[in-house]
Amino acid sequence: MPEPTTAPTVRPTVRTVLDAAVDAVGGSERPGQVTMAETVAEALDQERHLLVQAGTGTGKSLGYLVPSMLHGERVVIATATLALQHQLIERDIPALRSAAASVGAEVPHCAVVKGRANYACLHRVREGVPDDQGVLVEVPEGELGAEVVTLRRWAEDQAEKESVGDRDSAPAHSERAWRQISVNHRECLGATRCSYAEECFAERARDDAAQADVVVTNHALLAIDAIDGVPMLPEYDAVVVDEAHELAARVTQAATAELDAGAVERAARRARSQVRGERADRAVDDLTEAADALGDALSHTQVGRIERAEEALSEALAMVRDAARNVVSALVKPADEKDGEDAGRQQAKAQLEELRTIAERMAAGKETEVLWVAETRSGAPLLRIAPIDVSLALRDRLFAEKTVVLTSATLTLGGGFDPLAVSLGLPAGDEESWRGIDVGSPFDYGRQGILYVAKHLPAPGRDGLQEAQLDEIAALVEAAGGRTLGLFSSRRAAEAAAAATRERLPDLDIWCQGDAQLPELARRFAVTDSTCLFGTLSLWQGVDLPGSTCQLVIIDRVPFPRPDDPLMSARQRLVEKRGGNGFMSVAASHAALLLAQGAGRLIRRADDRGVVAVLDPRLVTARYGSFLAASLPPMWRTTDRDAVLGALRRLDES
Fold first, then answer.
1. For the whole model, what pTM was predicted?
2. What is the pLDDT of residues 584-614, one digit of tens each?
3. Which stretches are transmembrane (predicted)?
4. Partner of 425 for a Cys bridge, out of 66, 391, 564, 626, CB 3.0 to 4.6 A?
5. Furthest C-alpha separation in the chain
């Protein structure tokens, strides 16, 4: 008699799970979201790279989480901002898990991986922190000490509860206080040498990620893992990069290093108490001399890009490199020391290894990197180095190894995907290796928003805002009854606009970036209809201010990079050297991306209405204006000042 057969389990479809997840967050069906989820699933199955532009309101996070969960192999989700990471962890992933259970799908295990410095270190909490001389300090004094005591108690409580112990769940604290209870990856003793390894929050997070179906991380860790080859993530089959318009900048940021005389001096002081013997003391003396040589060389080097380092700077970098290497060799464990690794010595080694690596990189003078001198807030010179182009590294070490889905509300520049795709290492127009799709937005931009270009104004100059522009700002703000987000190209311009508008419209609350912490300013702006908020780059992206509080977005000028920006100018020259148009590929693409992000602050939900006012006539008069305009949301466009003022007054009265 044949054995009874069991009815095959029907695998839930992407659409089934997506519908359940949308219900779990109280949402409604969005055609763009459905298209995105099904297209992402297809790309993952076919192992073909995909670029998905999904406008604000599409619900793109569930659009990629659902197919990632159903993929069958581990998928990494990489975000650029903590805000999106929080949204995934606190809202979207719980909804996804609930949806999977409700339709009979396997409930995915999801984990979060952050850099080691984002977790409390129990060794540092319990043993103390080495000071600049390498001596363990129990608790610093004063207000900082009180913060550290609170954080230590919290960390012990987290350990007892076997909780996450990461910075985002910690009590309010300063950056200095957090450094007292955390370590970076170089300072860490390592699981084999640390007596608290079994309780370690960072190690537990990585163990959890090794069991997960979906791993959430950030762009920087993705870059370190995939490009630098430092294992930060468990093995994975594919990666979804959200906020992908930020990827090249974040990868560049992760690969940027800096060095100054102060850092070398601090490393020498810390190493001094850790070495023994005349030879070791001489090595530390050499490092101190190298710090002096570097400081002197930098004081005679102009701020800006260094095409070719002067002899004094080259010699100083070589001195730092060689001295740091020699001191590391001198930091040997004494024969009479007990088992285990001394935390002070480990921290000294970490600093020295980092110094050696950076100095060696700076001294190499590679054509693929740009070296420049910047100024700190105190006016002291600081040497920085960064890769000119990260596209080749992304191509060879990410796209060649993994299936990559890139998504953002802003991926098309000048009306197409090619500019951004090329900047990330994908060949232009190569339909065999990648596909681009725009799933649109649920918003009716043509009816909800007006794009106004003040064509009658003079082109912006180098001397900041002119009187005509200040008058235009005041007229627009007055017509809108406040309700204005002002996006400016510099802090000086934002402050000048705020001061002039306060003088002209004394009955309105005009807040400027710097008047308080940005989250507090955003909160004030969101709860008071007549308030205006003026600021710079941090307001252009990632600030979500839906509703009647924001009915006017003012952009003072096309946000081209500064002509003296070392990295951008080096990238332009590299493109030109390869036969391309450096201005359009670098400067115009950079400006188009920021313009699109800035204009995107206006329409955040289906009932939002308002005006984006660009005070730079070049958007409609310059040859490159059409490229920039094609990158913006499809709002109704006009240069008619009276029509715009009338529309703002009607909105204010409604």
1. 0.87
2. 999 999 999 999 999 998 998 888 999 999 9
3. none
4. 391
5. 95
